[in-house]
Design a protein that fits this description.
Strands 1-2 form a two-stranded antiparallel ribbon. The protein is built from four helices and two strands, in the order ββαααα. The chain is mostly helical. The chain is globular.
Amino acid sequence: MSEADSGNGDPEIDRVNVRISRSFLDVIDETWRERGFNSRSEFIRHALRDSVNHPEGAGLWKDLAISEAQLDDDERVSSEEIKATYGHDSE
């Protein structure tokens, strides 16, 4: 299987494999559910589109990468602290 292969027989849809730590995946899963997305894939597509359409938000992605490293080192930051930093409501 290649790095990017067609999914569902639709030539406009490619599947991309990404390796991330289990702890970061747990955070992603919690986040997409809290934000009302229907699936992990839907949330990740939204995040990628947002990153491409709003590159000025790149600092967020850098912070996420740092957070993943901290999770791997068992240094945790609460979702409330993250929401406060980026001005998101808890609802």
